[in-house]
Amino acid sequence: MGAPRPTRRLLILSGAATLAAPSLARAQGRYPDRPIQLVVPWPAGGSADVQLRSIGDIASRTLGQPVVIQNRPGAGGTLGPMQVAQQSRPDGYTLTQMHLSVLRRPWMMRTPQWDPIADFTHIIGMTGWLFGCAVKADSPFQTWQQMIAYARANPGKLNYTTSGIGTTNHLAMETIQEKENVQLTHVPFRGSNEAVTAVLGGQVEMVCDSSTWAPFVENGQMRCLSVWTAERVPRFPNVPTLKELGYDLTVTSPYGVSGPKGMDEGVVRVLHDVMKTALMSPENTEVRSRFDMPLVYQDTQTYRAFIAERVEYEKAMVRRLNLSLDS
């Protein structure tokens, strides 16, 4: 006996679905069909800027549309992400670098201006920074211990710079000062490249930031006093880690890419896949190696879980150190 013939109702429904599919495809269009903007919340030229420009260039070749980097520095690297969360449509055409300061800064405000979980669609975890402290080559400090001894004898006299109040490197320096019972003067800049320029120009004595200082250490213009990785950095084998100096600290500050809340999960998958391919490419691997940036890849679900867990950690850290932007 042959299979039963479909009823007229089923035929009508089947035909309706067939007609609806092309209409839906036309309504949604092909993604992407225009340039994608990736907001980097630091000035051009820093390690994250260079790494994400490389990601954008490589991704553009697969997507068939340019990924345009827009630098929006300010507010410790949180101005750009905040604007993306509050002002951008969740259509996949405006993205931002997501880093730990974006997770931390709301809890430093009396009235938080964004929710780092609810106000974003987190897409992919990528890499982190090599952090360290460096001084100008003619600085009297030959070692980290000499710097700490001077700071202990001269409270508030020694100044250092980071890429902003409430950034991961700023909090690490606050933790170090708390442990050593010393007082340094913090001079924040908008990004690590501006901080390094200030040290080279003699306006600030020490930079404690991501590895924009590394080429200047290599060419002899600066001296690195510490690195904040778990182990010594091959490029700087004589520079001690914070753990070797007696601090239970490893600071790499992993970051990724996110968009506004409410993004279509199909678009998220496209972006994740193309950015993962770019991240793993020899071209981007070379860029990360140039800045000693570790690979910290996390897929979408893993990255979202990391963000949720890390937000709780950052809230506790802000309370413990009594950090506030309102005081």
Question: Which percent band covers the strand fraction?
Answer: 15-25%
Low-pLDDT windows of residues: 1-28
**Share of helical residues:** 40-55%
Tally of helical segments:
11
Q: Please report the first level of CATH classification, the CATH class of the largest domain.
A: Alpha Beta
Oligomerization state: single chain
Note the main attributes of this structure:
D-Maltodextrin-Binding Protein, domain 2, 11 helices, disordered N terminus, 2 domains, 327 residues
Protein described:
Keywords: Signal. The structure is a single chain. The strands form two sheets. Strands 2-1-3-10-4-11 form a six-stranded mixed beta sheet. Strands 7-6-8-5-9 form a five-stranded mixed beta sheet. It folds into two domains: 36-128 and 254-321, D-Maltodextrin-Binding Protein, domain 2, CATH 3.40.190; 131-227, 3-Layer(aba) Sandwich (D-Maltodextrin-Binding Protein, domain 2). It is an alpha/beta fold. The protein is built from eleven helices and eleven strands. Mean pLDDT is 89; it is low at 1-28. Helix 6 links the parallel strand 6 (159-162) and strand 7.
